[in-house]
Structure formats: structure tokens, C-alpha cells
Amino acid sequence: MNLLIVALAPVVIIAAYIYFRDKYEKEPIRLLIYALFAGGLTVIPVLFLETFLSSFTYLFPGLTAAAWKAFVVAAFSEELWKFVALYVLIWRSPEFNEKFDGIVYAVYVALGFAAVENVMYVMEGGFSTGIMRAVTAVPAHAIFGVTMGFYFGLAKFYEKQQAGLKLKALGFPILLHGIYDFILFTGIEWLTIVFVGFVVYLYVSGHKRIKELSKSSIYNTDYDLLNEKLSKPE
Q1: Structural domain count, the chain
Q2: Closest listed residue to residue 35, CA positions, set 127, 151, 121, 115
Q3: CA dihedral of 128, 131, 27, 94, whole degrees rounded to 10
Q4: pLDDT in tens, 3-21
Q5: Which domain of life is it from (predicted)?
């Protein structure tokens, strides 16, 4: 039970943080639970795709094998299915009515995946693994979700750039995820310093994107309130 708490605690904390950052029109709890559940379910197709792609690793020597596993086997497989889950869940939902909503739902989908993955790792690796992943892997998944949701939210409201923004919503999380895993998969000790710096970068960039679209939500809300006021008869 203690290991389960250690595994799920960072997921709960980040989910609560994102929920309370959505100050002006909170998303329905029902949909947020669906997003977590959908993210958790993506583990199934991810396992199948990763198993298939892993079978080609032998074709790549040295560091290229680490790159293949990081960018293709892990990052591509996981972020692709998170994107699919996010798209199916909310793209046509009437609740998706602010740019910041893209971040909220994408993070919840990512946290659903991270919760299942983290339980498996922590149950196998123990308490120390849980603590390490609480400050690295789980927040990283959330930040990949922030990145995906940032561009996904923009894509919803900028139709002329929609195709390119959707591509960025998938491509940039794959790139960030791939870099994260590549540093780990190489096994090169001095890259630990790079890894720490990259994790800090993820934290900073994730917070910046949250702040940017959260501010955008304020402006959207003020605009909607103004329109509502002007439309009322005197």
C-alpha cells in the first residue's frame, strides 16, 4: 500500500495543480476522470507498438540504438497514443472552449498514462525508484502533456494554422520525450549533468506555457463577459 501511495502521489499533486490553475471555467470532473482513464488505457496499445518497434533495435549499432529506443520505441509510441486519446476525447467536445483546456486535458491524459507506468516501475523498483520518478519521470510526462496541450489548444482556435499546430502538438512532445529518454538510455555518466539541466528546462518551459495560456483564458473570459453584457437589452 505504501508503494502504491508513493507511485500515485505525484500524479495526484500535479492533477490538483493543473485543476486549480484553470481558474475561470473549470472542466467537468467527469471529463477529467475520463481523460485519466483514457491515458491509462493507452498503456495497452503502447506496449504492443513498443514491442513491435523494439524488434528492429538490432539494426542500429551503438548510440543509434539508444536513439531508436528513445525517439521511436518510447517517445513516438507513447506520445502518439496520448495524442489519439486526447483527440478522440475532447476535440469535438463543447467543453473544449478555451485554449487552456487543451493543456488541462492533455496533462490529465498524460497523467493517466504516467500513473499506470509509475505503479509498474515502483512496485518493481521500490521506494527509492518512487522518489526518483516523483521528481523526474512523472513531472516529465506532465510537461510533455503541457507541450501537447499548448499546441492542441491553439489548433482548436486558429483554423488557418490548424494542421501545422496539430503536427507540433504531436511532434514537440515526441522530441522532448526522446531527448529525455536518450540521455538516460546512453548510460553515459557525464550526461547526468545534462539530464538534470534538461529536467530543469522542462519545468521552466512547462510553467511558461501554462502561464501563457492561463493568461489567454483570462482575456477570453473577459471578452465573453463583455459580449454577454452588450447583448443584454437595457
Answers
A1: 1
A2: 115
A3: -60
A4: 888 889 999 999 998 998 8
A5: Bacteria
Q: Is 30 exposed, middle or buried (0-12, 13-18, 19+ CB in 10 A)?
A: exposed
Q: In which domain, by residue range, is 84 found?
A: 2-22+29-228
Exposure letters 12-24 (e unless 16+ CB within 10 A, then b): eebbeebbebbee
**Residue 234 located in a structural domain:** no
Lookup result for grid cell 463583455: 226
Q: What is the pLDDT of residues 87-120, one digit of tens each?
A: 999 999 999 988 889 999 999 999 999 999 999 9
Is 163 within a domain?
Answer: yes
Does 7 fall in a domain? yes
Q: How many of the other CB atoms lie within 10 Å of CB of 91?
A: 14
